[in-house]
Amino acid sequence: MKKLATIVLIVFVSCTANQKRNKRGLVVFAAASLAPALQEIAKQFETAENIGLKINYASSGTLARQIEMGAKCDAYFSANIGWMDYLKKKGVLVPGSREELIENKLVIIGQKNNTIDTINFDNIPEFLLNPEIKFSIGDPSHVPVGKYARQAMENLGWYNSIKAKIVFAKDARSAFYYVELGEIPYGVVYQTDARGSQKIKVLGTFPQQSHGRIIISMAFIGDSLNSSLTRFRQFIRSEKVKNIWREYGYIIKSRN
Q1: Which residues form a coiled coil (predicted)?
Q2: For residues 75 and 26, is the Cβ–Cβ distance under 8 A?
Q3: Which pLDDT tens digit goes with each residue over 5-19?
Q4: Which residues, 6 or more positions from 15, have their beta carbon under 8 angstroms from its beta carbon?
Q5: Which stretches of 172-226 are assigned E, i.e. beta strand?
Q6: Which residues have a Cβ under 8 Å from the Cβ of 180 and sit 6 or more positions away?
Q7: DSSP tag of 107
Q8: Cα 200 to the chain's mean position, in Å?
Q9: Reported confidence tier of residue 115, pLDDT bands at 50, 70, 90
Q10: How much is the pTM?
Q11: Disulfide: which of 82, 86, 174, 183 matches 169 by Cβ 3.0-4.6 Å?
């Protein structure tokens, strides 16, 4: 009887611990550009699995540095593989948990009411040479879309001609909002940020060879996976989630 009571007690304690963990939920750090799609994914996950998600959005670099400094985080979504490599070197990723999920494209946007509809990437657009025109990109020091934008414009031979007019944004969504709200007439953002807005239009998509591949990856933080993280990973890999990514314009990356 004592042995049976001990087993029952162990099972009870284990179940109670899991319930507390599920009630606490998971803390997710995610690149700001992922917010629209990830909010929908989070809602469906919470309903399906009864596990709460608390999501902190910022630039991939800002989040990586917070994780490095010990911020509480269970899962990290990065819009740049460089920042994921950075955390791997710091030894904070759960071994084997890193995986590449989706890809994106880089575009130039403008306000919908301007007179320019398309641009030719063979030469720097004349409107960008106007000394009164400002241009928004993410801060390349920690915002992946800004890093890709600078890389693309340098490879195309544009950057030195317009760098004095660039307004650096704190994250990808801010670079987009500057243009959408009419504060700055043009900007470089992800293709997915430009979808669905009634106030802006895409003027052109940067040639793929002008910048590194825009790969969004996910990894877990800590020493090992618990049941909640395992269920979250399974959900992220599901066809349901892949369809959500597609709806928001992402390209699904094949798993090796």
Answers
A1: none
A2: yes
A3: 433 333 343 344 344
A4: none
A5: 186-190, 200-205, 214-220
A6: 197, 199, 200
A7: E
A8: 21
A9: confident
A10: 0.83
A11: 174
